[in-house]
Amino acid sequence: MIDKSFDIKDLSLAGQGRERVEWALTEMPVLSAIHDRFVKERPLAGARISGCLHITTETANLARTLKAGGAEVVLCASNPLSTQDDVTAVLVQHYHIPTFAICGEDGSAYYRHIGQALDHKPQLTLDDGADLVSELHKNRSALLAEVIGGTEETTTGVMRLRAMAEDRALRFPVIAVNDAMTKHLFDNRYGTGQSTLDGIIRSTNILLAGKTFTVAGYGWCGRGIAMRARGHGAQVIITEVDPQRALEAAMDGYRVMPMLEAAIISDFIVTATGDKHVLDKTHFEVVKDHCVIANAGHFNVEINIPALEKLSVKKHRPRKGVEAYRLKNGRTVRLLSEGRLVNLAAAEGHPATVMDMSFANQALSIAYLWQHGADLKNAVYPVPSDIDRQVAKMKLAAMRLSIDKLSREQQNYLSSWKEGT
Fold this sequence. Notes:
44% of the residues lie in helices and 16% in strands. By secondary structure, the chain is α/β, with parallel strands linked by helices. Strands 9-8-7-10-11-14-13-12 form an 8-stranded mixed sheet, sandwiched between helices. A 7-stranded parallel sheet has the order 3-2-1-4-5-6-15, with helices on both faces. It is globular, with a radius of gyration of 22 Å. It is an enzyme of class 3 (hydrolase). Substrate binds at residues 56, 128, 153, 183, 187.
């Protein structure tokens, strides 16, 4: 099993963590209902689960729910800067969930903690970015025989897993929770939109109104960031490589142009693509003086930080979480949160209300895999549609909203080809 029961910063933070976890739970009625059901039904009895996730208050409530369903849960961090140390303390001290994560840990500690989570010999995996699954396949392949399935939380992870499946390297089925309608339509758009702006404002305290604000990528996360930036009064530019998304951005009223043009006039640039070097050397060479750059994609490769370092003659930290790079051309670039997820590194991540739906999908999908994973092929699957719809219905009920139902006549009409004009 586990050589050491936990590796966290400070157990004495547990009291503070418990208050915040319980606060988040008040905004998570769907997951609360699933927790209560899991207590009664124990759908995960005997399951060993290793999770590599952002260790936040909302994640703590997901872990509690899985444990209530009968699972043995172990957690590690999916990002070195997103861990909330008071949450790791409460997970260990009060909820007795082994946790391996320390905010600010270096790369060596990060992968050591993933290894400790894998020492649990998981039958099910929870991942956010696919680092745990990748490590399992590359360096701990002896454990693969016991793995029944896993779930993936974010766009970057789904992309990596689909590449593994395409190469026939994936050794167990994975459900792409990220692609559930009740996840990407809400978590990615409203959650990322609000929390990214929150992280930028906390870091800089710069008024957004009247500023030129560029968003790289017009996926669901990019849509949300652009929408919230415009709501603050910013003049928003979208950069894209996909012609359909670029066209949609233009139809939504945003300016669309290449990044090389946008960099010259932008006061803020935020990447949200899932790709690498979206902001590169050529952009830094022309970027506007004192431009603030940040990343809302999963990994810190979207901004080519080594290239920025080479172009710089001086670096200092004017504010917490802000690195000001003085370039050889005399301009200054302000990098937030070391290029890591700014909404988690500089703020608190998504509000609990949207994580309620994301983690409801996680909990129900994990239970589904525990029951049906052995019958699935080694591929990336969508969240079963009945789970996605169930989460939406539960969220509507929690919001005390009701909707219409189709009559039998309407159902027959929609399923028939015989009636027309």
